[in-house]
Amino acid sequence: MHNLRLKKAILEVVDNQIAANAPPATKQTLDRLLSQGLSEVEAKELIGAVVVSEAFKVLQAQEPYDEKRFVEALNKLPEIPD
Questions:
Q1: Which pLDDT value is given to residue 2?
Q2: Where are the alpha helices (DSSP H) in the chain?
Q3: Share of the chain above pLDDT 90, in %
Q4: What pLDDT sits at residue 1?
Q5: Is residue 82 pLDDT above 60, yes or no?
Q6: Which of 61, 23, 4 is nearest to 53 (CA)?
Q7: Which residues contact 32 (CB under 8 A, 6 or more apart)?
Q8: What gap in Å lies between CA 16 and CA 20, rounded to an integer?
Q9: Cβ contact 72:25 at 8 Å
Q10: pLDDT above 80: residue 79
Q11: What does the alpha-carbon distance between residue 64 and residue 82 come to, in Å, rounded to a whole number?
Q12: Which pLDDT band, with edges at 50, 70 and 90, does 23 fall under?
């Protein structure tokens, strides 16, 4: 059950970023993934994986949050072929 709570918390972070448009790249990535045919849930889960990756880097390496690195990771999310 802990994994479900963690997943919910991560998706809440994604939803908050989209609602606040901060950073704008989160909403842009969501729109891009949706236009490629992913469901909203699938797209948000991919974005959530980037959130987790950035959080891991911040916590493990004790680095500050790096928005540029975060946006670059969002931009690397896979293109879905037609």
A1: 64
A2: 2-20, 24-35, 40-60, 67-75
A3: 87
A4: 45
A5: no
A6: 61
A7: none
A8: 6
A9: no
A10: no
A11: 38
A12: very high
Instruction: State both tokens at 33.
Output: 């993934």
Which residues, 6 or more positions from 34, have their beta carbon under 8 angstroms from its beta carbon? 40, 43
Query: Roughly what angle, to the nearest 10 degrees, separates helices 24-35 and 40-60?
Result: 140
Kindly state the tokens that stand for 47: 């974005």
Lookup: tokens for 77: 């999310």
The rounded distance, in Å, linking the Cα atoms of 80 and 59 is: 31
How many CA atoms lie less than 13 Å away from 49 in the CB half-sphere?
Answer: 13
Structure tokens at 24: 């704008």
Name residue, tokens 């448009």: 21
Residue 62 tokens, joined: 């004790």
Determine whether 81 is exposed, middle or buried from the number of CB atoms within 10 Å of its CB (0-12, 13-18, 19+).
exposed
DSSP single-letter state for residue 64: P
